[in-house]
Design goal:
Largest interface: A-B, 21 and 26 residues
Largest sheet of chain A: 7 strands, mixed
Helix content of chain B: under 10%
Shape of chain B: globular
Largest sheet of chain B: 6 strands, mixed
Number of helices of chain B: 0
Strand content of chain A: over 45%
Radius of gyration of chain A: 13 Å
Oligomer: heterodimer
Order of helices and strands of chain A: EEEEEEEEEEE
Number of strands of chain B: 11
Number of helices of chain A: 0
Structural class of chain B: mainly beta
Distance between the termini of chain A: 36 Å
Number of strands of chain A: 11
Shape of chain A: globular
Structural class of chain A: mainly beta
Radius of gyration of chain B: 14 Å
Chain lengths: 114, 114
């Protein structure tokens, strides 16, 4: 049982480049989400999904897009990278929605935008 | 909007000593979750508290949910080097017809002096 798998682990982008962070879970969780973690600011919700075909914005959605075509996958797209998006990104899933059951986190992607 | 504050931001503890970290919400919560993140790792779920005044123990860790369901604490006794990491609380606010909204505190980073 792999849990939540994120790729890549590290990424360096130049300003203006685009990329997709991948997230997959094998626990049949309906709820999936993306967080960014910056020093001293805890975890901030970017986007989330309560099931295939359904996505919604979190606290800091600007500059990011998501889609949920299957229950297992929830990719995060950076359309035009900016230095302010330098952060550690975590994908998380849970059986029920936010705060209703424990979140299972992936190992994270450390992104640097120069 | 909902705010969840954690104090202290940093905690230096002598090995063998006890310490407490606190989590305070600006609004009444439906439940609160606690996570631990080891250095370089990802957040791992520890516990969820739901009832007013609830107290739960996990070995040397004692979690408490306030009577008003607006604050929580984590008390660790006889600190060990394995307790090093950042402890996050996450407060769930029930939003009618929209499920819960989960907000993370900024975390308490614990350093243990051997």
């Amino acid at each position: 049982n792999a849990g939540v798998t994120q790729t890549p682990k590290f990424q360096v982008l130049k300003t203006g480049q685009s990329m997709t962070l991948q997230c997959a879970q094998d626990m049949n969780h309906e709820y999936m989400s993306w967080y960014r973690q910056d020093p001293g600011m805890g975890l901030r919700l970017i986007h989330y999904s309560v099931g295939a075909g359904i996505t919604d914005q979190g606290e800091v959605p600007n500059g990011y897009n998501v889609s949920r075509s299957t229950t297992e996958d929830f990719p995060l797209r950076l359309l035009s990278a900016a230095p302010s998006q330098t952060s550690v990104y975590f994908c998380a899933s849970s059986y029920w929605g936010q705060g209703s059951s424990p979140l299972h986190f992936g190992n994270g992607t450390r992104l640097t935008v120069t | 909007g909902q705010q969840v504050m954690q104090i202290p931001q940093y905690q230096h503890v002598q090995e063998g000593e006890d310490f407490t970290t606190y989590c305070n919400s600006s609004t009444t919560l439906s439940n609160i979750q606690w996570y631990k993140q080891r250095p370089g790792g990802h957040p791992v779920f520890l516990i969820q508290l739901v009832k007013s005044g609830e107290v739960k123990k996990q070995k040397r860790l004692t979690f408490q949910f306030g009577e008003a369901k607006k604050n929580s604490s984590l008390h660790i006794t006889a600190t060990q080097t394995t307790d090093v990491g950042t402890y996050f609380c996450a407060g769930a606010l029930e939003i009618k017809a929209a499920g819960n909204k989960l907000t993370f505190g900024g975390g308490t980073r614990v350093l243990v002096k051997p």
